[in-house]
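To: structure subgroup
Subject: Chain for Friday's discussion

All,

I'm putting the inputs and outputs inline so they're searchable in the archive.
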Amino acid sequence: MPFDDPAISVRNLTKTYRLFGHAGDRVKQFLTFGVKRFHREFTALKDLSFDINKGEAVGIIGRNGSGKSTLLQLICGILKPTSGTVQTHRRISALLELGAGFNPEFTGRENVYFQGALMGFTRIDMEARFDDIAAFAEIGEFIDQPVRTYSSGMFVRLAFAAMIHADADILVIDEALAVGDEAFQRKCFSKLLDYLDGNEKILLFVSHNIRQVERICSRAIWLEDGRVVQQGPAREICAAYQDRIHQQVQDTHERSKLRPTFVDSGEVDVIRLQLFKGADEEPVDEIEIHTAVKVVIDFRCHSRLIAPDIIVGFHTTDSVFIAAASTAILPMQPDFPAGDHRVEVRVADLILLPGVYQMRLGFLDRHLRTMWSGHKLSTFRVTAPARSDVIRLPPGLVDMQFEWVFALPEGKQ
């Protein structure tokens, strides 16, 4: 629903790129004055329309290639639309792809002052801000070294510090914070929340981390193939997006056989790898956090297996490993004669945070030779309990249980 006085107004926005197979084709295209085509066209954004009002934090979500970065660059004025319009009525400060806007030969200090000049600040203005920027970035003496010598983490520290202290009305962040370490990410998000708190500022935030979008943003826009699929409250849109991803991964999995992705010696065939809720008899592909579950492995041995090591693990859909269980920790590992077998792995408390996950499986013989190994074998989704507040869930991948103890100073009761 459009706002009465939007700070950002996008109307019928389309962006089409010309893709040339060879560098010389650009010259040929120019010399023929468009009579003959030496390129193909790719439309990154197709007829987008929406408004963003002051005080909103809006997440842009979608798969790679959906048009997120192109949209942000159009809003920032880096690109020009093929058709349609983008109107912004406030000062914008952007943190886009790593390296954008900084001269690699300039020092960190020089780049900060240069960025300030581009934003319209005088040198006196920047001198008043510089100490705060340097303190937030925490890169020490590297502030006076050329940024080409920086690690990616140091670069994003300085870039974010310069952006957040620019006193802009609109902040635009495109996945850049994923480069920073965990402690610095927390510091950045805390600063963003302070920036948004009651100041009628605007945040446009692109991230593949759906949890971050849910925590920071009040609204989300879901892009797919350059079009808006849905927009609305961040939690609802993120949940719908995760449902779609889960279904697509599940459909792909169902169309294929359970085959190893790494090693297959031919000694073991894995028939099924399924997740069950507690003692239920039907497998599930969606389960609430902190539920008792069991992973059931059905497999066939072509010959006797003596004390094999069976490993079951969990990872994210982009293959970030989380945890695994192994029969190697058992006092005695069982033998399996030729034939069909079933093994269960029981988890009393599933502490994976809401999201989409997959399982991996491996069989090693008693000499630690891999007989069967694969990942992305079974997909499931973890959900939050109904009416729970996802904002209060911790960052990361698991919800470990902690106990806080506050000791009173001596002599006080």
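Points worth raising on Friday:
The chain has a mean pLDDT of 85.
Residues 111 and 385 are 47 Å apart (CA to CA).

D.
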